[in-house]
């Protein structure tokens, strides 16, 4: 990941100028012929052109005058394109100057550049040769505040870390190692971390987490994170709950479809999103009291695995008839959500790669949200989604959907039938909350099958920038 800095002396031969109109280009920087050339190459807003001045590579990016979330995203995409150009030319550093009348876009351009420069090279023998050349991005600006820079850096770093976690295979990232990684990364910046081991989980009678773990040779973990600054804007905590299924075979309800297990290391994308969001909040010193809860295990078939037809007693005392062991995410989330009650939370948000139905409904363009938190919270999350371009769509949450989960022999069954699968998963979880709550299904967005703009093939870090944006503005 490239280092981002502000107004530092930088020896570089690569420069970026952001403009609104061609007339913004100074004749001290460009000859008339060069300005004419740039003008001929840039056909529309968010186009860019490159000029070589012997010992310098200069890239000009034209932005739009109108400021909007859509144009912010176009600026990120412009930054991503520039990163590709710089790595192709083997540039190691670049200096950005915004010549437009509104410097608000320079943050978005830099964010797009940094996000696009991410790589996961840990397991390549020739990683050094594959590594991108771009290492340093310097912003020249008299208007960007230090806190804005800190938030930019925190968000990009957190997104990269979340992608690292999701890209790691189960051969490294067991539930115990996920807990280790979270503690190692976040305690350095002031986050308090406690990891509950298998014995403690058993003592707490977290039946859902323990049931899913029965098929595993590795123990489950339950990680509790807390960022509690003295100047917190909230008197009661916001709790972020992340599904930590480090690998999902479907259990005894083995996933049947072609290639369906190939990227199931990503089933802990919710855990990565919430851990990453808390890292960003703490790194940027956002004055919001936040607690993270990460229930983690893998879901594999074995002679002792939980089976369809089993009845599981959950942490809050409800019994669940298991009809599909591949609906395991809601089982571990349910225990974590009911455990959240002990913190007397102001708001609880969960994130999970929960249902294929969400993927079918939304494609890779948005995540689904639903819950009991109320219109103000839902509106704020949607706004954060548009700002970060991690968009969310609110699904209906009618009482009637709860009827789909009635069991003949227990309080609930863990699947609701063939219809409205994303919503019935949320309605299942509703049985374990009695506080304002939002369920976020990031199954559509947590993993990408191809590279696009500033998103690489593989893990996307979905949710990190969404929840960071939401919490930056929480109770402001």
Radius of gyration: 24 Å
Measured as a percent range, the helix fraction is 25-40%
Q: Total number of helical segments?
A: 14
CATH architecture label of the largest domain = 3-Layer(aba) Sandwich
Question: CATH first level of the largest domain: which class?
Answer: Alpha Beta
Question: How many strands?
Answer: 20
- Described by the principal axes of the CA atoms, the overall outline is elongated
- State the domain count: 2
How far apart are the termini?
Answer: 31 Å
Average predicted confidence as pLDDT: 96
CATH homology group of the largest domain: Zn peptidases
Fraction of residues in β-strands = 15-25%
Largest sheet: 9 strands, mixed
Going by helix content, strand content and strand pairing, the class is: alpha/beta
Low-confidence stretches: none
CATH topology of the largest domain: Aminopeptidase
């Amino acid at each position: 990941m490239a280092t981002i800095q502000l107004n530092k002396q930088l020896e570089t031969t690569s420069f970026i100028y952001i403009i609104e109109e061609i007339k913004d280009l100074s004749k001290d920087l460009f000859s008339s012929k060069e300005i004419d050339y740039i003008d001929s190459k840039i056909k529309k807003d968010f186009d860019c052109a490159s000029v070589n001045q012997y010992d310098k590579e200069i890239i000009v990016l034209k932005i739009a005058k109108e400021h909007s979330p859509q144009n912010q995203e176009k600026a990120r995409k412009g930054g991503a394109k520039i990163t590709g150009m710089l790595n192709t030319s083997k540039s190691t550093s670049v200096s950005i100057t915004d010549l437009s009348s509104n410097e608000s876009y320079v943050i978005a351009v830099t964010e797009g550049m940094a996000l696009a420069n991410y790589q996961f090279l840990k397991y390549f023998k020739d990683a050094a040769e594959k590594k991108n050349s771009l290492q340093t991005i310097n912003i020249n600006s008299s208007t960007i505040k230090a806190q804005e820079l800190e938030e930019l850096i925190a968000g990009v770093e957190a997104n990269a870390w979340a992608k690292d976690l999701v890209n790691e295979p189960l051969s490294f990232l067991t539930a115990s190692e996920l807990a280790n990684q979270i503690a190692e990364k976040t305690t350095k910046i002031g986050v308090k971390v406690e990891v509950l081991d298998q014995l403690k989980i058993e003592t707490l009678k977290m039946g859902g987490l323990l049931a899913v773990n029965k098929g595993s040779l590795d123990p489950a973990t339950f990680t509790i994170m807390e960022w509690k600054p003295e100047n917190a804007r909230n008197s009661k905590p916001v709790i972020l709950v992340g599904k930590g299924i480090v690998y999902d075979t479907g259990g005894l309800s083995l996933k049947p479809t072609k290639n369906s297990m190939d990227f199931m290391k990503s089933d802990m994308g919710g855990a990565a999103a919430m851990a990453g969001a808390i890292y960003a909040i703490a790194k940027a010193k956002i004055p919001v009291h936040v607690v993270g809860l990460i229930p983690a295990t893998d879901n594999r078939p074995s002679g002792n695995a939980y089976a369809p037809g089993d009845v599981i007693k959950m942490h809050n005392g409800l019994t669940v008839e298991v009809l599909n062991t591949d609906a395991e995410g809601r089982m571990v989330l349910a225990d974590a959500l009911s455990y959240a009650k002990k913190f007397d939370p102001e708001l609880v948000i969960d994130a999970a790669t929960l249902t294929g139905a969400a993927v079918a409904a939304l494609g890779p363009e948005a995540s689904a949200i639903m819950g009991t938190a109320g219109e103000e919270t839902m509106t704020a999350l949607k706004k954060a989604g548009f700002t970060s371009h991690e968009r969310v769509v609110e699904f209906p949450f009618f009482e009637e959907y709860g009827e789909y989960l009635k069991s003949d022999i227990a309080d609930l069954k863990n699947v609701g039938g063939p219809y409205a699968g994303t919503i019935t998963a949320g309605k299942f979880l509703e049985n374990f909350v009695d506080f304002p709550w939002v369920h976020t299904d990031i199954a559509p967005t947590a993993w990408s099958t191809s590279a696009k703009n500033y998103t690489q093939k593989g893990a996307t870090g979905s949710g990190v920038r969404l929840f960071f944006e939401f919490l930056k503005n929480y109770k402001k």
